[in-house]
Amino acid sequence: MATIATTATINWVAPDYATRLRRSRLGLLVALTPVLMLFVSFTSAYVVRQGLPTLDPRTNQLVRDWIPVKLPILLLVNTGVLVLSSAGMELARRQIKNAAQAGATSSTAEVSFNDEGKMPWLGITIVLGLSFLFGQWMAWKQLAANGFYVATTPSSSFVYLLTGAHAVHLMGGVVALLLAGVFALLRRPVTTRSIVVDVTAWYWHFMAALWVYILCLLEFAR
Amino acid sequence: MATHEFAAQAHAHAAPQGFIRKWIFSLDHKVIGLQYFFLALTAVLVGMFLSLLMRIHLIWPTVPLPLLGEIKPETYLSLLTMHGTIMVFFVLTTAPQGGFGNYFLPIQIGAPDMAFPVLNMLSFWTTFLGFVVLLAAFFVTGGAPLHGWTGYAPLSALQSAGPGEGLGADLWIISIAIFCIGALMGALNFITTTLDMRAKGMTMMRMPLTCWAWFITAILGLLAFGVLLSAGILLLMDRNLGTSFFVPLVTVNGQLTGHKGGSPLLWQHLFWFFGHPEVYIAILPAMGLCSQLLSVFSRKPIFGYKAMVYAMLSIGFLGFMVWGHHMFMSGMSPYTAFAFSIMTMAIGVPSAIKTFNWLGTLWRGKLRFTSPMLFAIGFVSLFVTGGISGPFLAQPVLDIYLHETYFVIAHFHLIMGVASIFGIFAATYYWFPKMFGRMMNETLGKLHFWLTFVGAYAIFMPMHYYGMAAGLRRYSQGTEVAWIQHLLPLQKFITIAAFVTIASQFIFVFNLFWSMKKGKKASDNPWEATTLEWTTATPPPHDNFGGKTPVVRNGPYEYSVPGASRDFVMQSDEEIKKKH
Lengths: 222, 580
What we know:
- The complex is a heterodimer.
- Chain A is about 70% helix and about 5% strand.
- By secondary structure, chain A is mainly α.
- Chain A has one domain: Cytochrome c oxidase, subunit III, four-helix bundle (Four Helix Bundle (Hemerythrin (Met), subunit A), Up-down Bundle).
- In chain A, a hairpin with a 4-residue loop joins strand 2 (about 55) and strand 3 (about 60-65).
- In chain A, helix 2 (about 75-100) runs antiparallel to helix 3, helix 2 runs antiparallel to helix 5 (about 190-220) and helix 3 (about 120-145) packs antiparallel against helix 4 (about 155-185).
- Chain A is elongated.
- The N and C termini of chain A lie far apart (about 70 Å).
- Mean pLDDT of chain A is about 90; it is low at about 1-5 and about 105-115.
- By secondary structure, chain B is mainly alpha-helical.
- Chain B has a single domain, classed as Cytochrome c oxidase-like, subunit I domain (Cytochrome C Oxidase, Chain A, Up-down Bundle), CATH 1.20.210.10.
- Chain B has helices at about 5-10, 20-25, 30-60, 75-110, 115-135, 165-195, 210-240, 265-300, 305-320, 335-345, 350-360, 370-390, 390-395, 395-400, 405-435, 440-470, 490-520; strands at about 250, 255, 550.
- A two-stranded antiparallel ribbon of chain B has the order 1-2.
- In chain B, a hairpin with a 2-residue loop joins strand 1 and strand 2 (about 255).
- Chain B is globular.
- Mean pLDDT of chain B is about 95; it is low at about 1-10.
- At the A-B interface, strand 1, helix 1, strand 2, helix 4 and helix 5 of A face helix 1, helix 6, helix 7, helix 8 and strand 3 of B.
- Strand 1 (about 10) of chain A pairs antiparallel with strand 3 of chain B.
């Protein structure tokens, strides 16, 4: 037996900090899926292309044109810088999260990368991130100096492709951190900045792990 | 400002008043939905015009057209490429998901907006930019590309491969890449909103099937568009940086191109890993919508709600397992082809479940033959007709004969094109009252339905026969090919049918714009439906429910409930106590 009642509603309330944080983290998790698919796709192309022979028109024989690239040592240094930046990012995330939880009731609570008496982890992370990108650029120059350009051999094409695609994604993280810094200067609520930093931190860790994967692929599957 | 905070503030305060913030760079999912809808409408008119030029050329290849002159074979291939690209990306993907999904997903789950409104706005404008870049290909030196919407390498990877393969092809790839980014932003929003913003009581298994369809479509997009993007990046590198991902040792006009060792099949694998799920990205929203409409206008609960959900999930999953059936002609191992063939046939199972459930919903219903209902039934018809030729093509031995013929064109136009378009029409007639506050004209709607329904069959049924009789696709001048001369009357018939069908679409366009101004005023729930969009004002207020959030107590398809005072119980009505 059913009856019809007045349509039920409740008053709408703005989402609180915990809800916003959860939603943003979920959004990030979803956003990482296509990034993962992009690199999975590049990897499958890498594996397929590596195994393909090509026809030598002079001898009419099938030959391999895949010349393994000796990676610059600088990439290892860059890896160290990125891992350090990931640690700095985590400290920045925890720092601002504590501030946000403490100041959730006060929308004007202040934490920025020049807060007195506190380590400016956010600023340190940005500097390390930019150092990594600069290091990657230098590694490219070393590759070119050794005669490996984008089209020299399919393996060098992939080195430039994978490092370049990763760098572009990391730049997105740097921009997000700069945005968090700008928010601090504009005195935006600490909760908002905390969410931006939190989400960027997880993204940053993902980028660090992705870089280690790329390096392993390029080094151990040459 | 973080997007979620923007959303919170946007709805805690009054709606934006300025024209720019209200209608151009709006954060309101409803406005963004309308923007997507009108973008798709523009795109479909362009795509339709291109198809008309193609049909004319197929019959009268040397006749000069006003302003355009004589269409050359290479121009025909450009028309073919641009028609396919526009229709697949900017119509079939854009309208059902970006348009209606954006407008109605938040309302149907009881949310005030999408999870990330700024991202939503960026998603639309990125898609819009992609469309502009694509159209720009017509106006650059060499014109639009001629490699087809599938962009097979090495044709698409070599600038010297033909007219249109220079800057035009670069713009084509860039446009697709931009579209992918826009679609990914949209998918992110759909998934997060569905998982995290449902109203109290709106469990996943109380969601309307439309929401399930948009949700699954978003997941497919999330997994598929990243792969297409990667393929596009590799293609751009082959074209502009001299790499050889897709280009083998090949000569153009007797000259070596400098590429070597690349694999055209690698492109095909990457493309079709996206391309087959794309078919479901286009049609799943229509499946969800038609399930909804058949229930509403049969005044019966949907037959087998859970089975419908699991069928859609199965279709989405299997959709990623069958890309190789597009490549039976590539010389793949017969064992691999067999595996792809079996998986493809398997999709017939969930598809049949859905079809029988639709028929079960109609069976002994109190049918109301409104315009949206007619288009929903038309969808079922087209889905079956277009789908039944799928198992033919899924068999490698048959596909080898049929693959390069019009049989394939007829198959995918019916199942992916026309069936999905019928879903879009059904959605427009159904939700127009909620979106614009007025009813569309029913007489014109029914006239539009019958002309389009008969017209679609008149175009695509003969096309199957043309294909079976070895009428080859992509040939621009079939009039010059001896073995298909006797089939020319069939092509003429198809062209005339296309003329009539395309002309009848202007009835819809007229009805759409006329009804916005002159249509009969709509009540809040003109169809006597149960889902949440019909509980709110028409058109919905800025925050969808006027500062309230609905509480959901019932499933989405409670029609003809025994003992109820009327023949439908809304989702937010008092909970139905069912006898067990």
